[in-house]
Sequence to fold (274 residues):
Amino acid sequence: MNTVRADILQQLKRVVIKVGSGVISTAEGLDGVMIAQLAEDICDFCARGIEVILVSSGAVAAGRNSLGIEGRPKTIPQKQAAAAIGQPRIMRAYKEVFLRHNRVAAQVLLTRDDLSNRRRYLNAHNTFDALLEYGVTPIVNENDTVVVEEIRFGDNDNLSAQVASLMEADLLLILSDVDGFYDGDPACDKGAQFLPLIEKITPEVMAMAGSSRGTLGTGGMQTKLQAAQKASLAGIPTLIVDGRAPGILRQVIEGSDVGSLFLASSSKLSARKR
Fold:
């Protein structure tokens, strides 16, 4: 384990984990095996004294088949309808697997408005604090069923960075469908180099991300870099790993050099500016 990663893990008390649709969903709907593994690994974190807030995608993917929608919904009303069907399904799946480990899960739905208004921002902070104090795992998603374009986060990568900032997490851990960050698209460029450590997200680094995105979710590597940049300004490092790799969360907590680590900025913003 490298020294930088060791220093971060030794201070780990609270982590925000973001899981993408491509990790817990398939073309047919939710992947029960992956959700069960994720819950088990989160409980392992908690047993080590680390508080976990889970930002989970997958509601739209879980509900779109019931509407006969193939691929990603093309309009906001379609997305809202799919989310209205899929959100209870995904929460039921989480509830059942967490109960197997004698742990309670809670649903928290947010819009950008909730974190841009100071009073609602503080209310959200207090709600998360209370849930964590009672040993409950908060499961966060954007409130897709009612949100409109003007108050959308747009993707759960950026939502996870906002939640990490809100709760002053020690690490933002993004579970993706790729194993980390490359200087090009490895699907198209066989010469793309894997970058295990990124000290600063510069315009050049952002340009490496391209504009690709998965078929099940709204985010791509570019939104993950935006999230890492937001977290960095709040003094929070970000680690992007392959969420479908067996035992990936245990590898992370045990210090294996997996994924790409983005360091926190040395000059972080004040809480009010965040």
Remarks:
- Residues 76-99 form the longest helix (24 residues).
- The two ends are 31 Å apart (CA to CA).
- The longest strand covers residues 14-19.
- The chain has a mean pLDDT of 86.
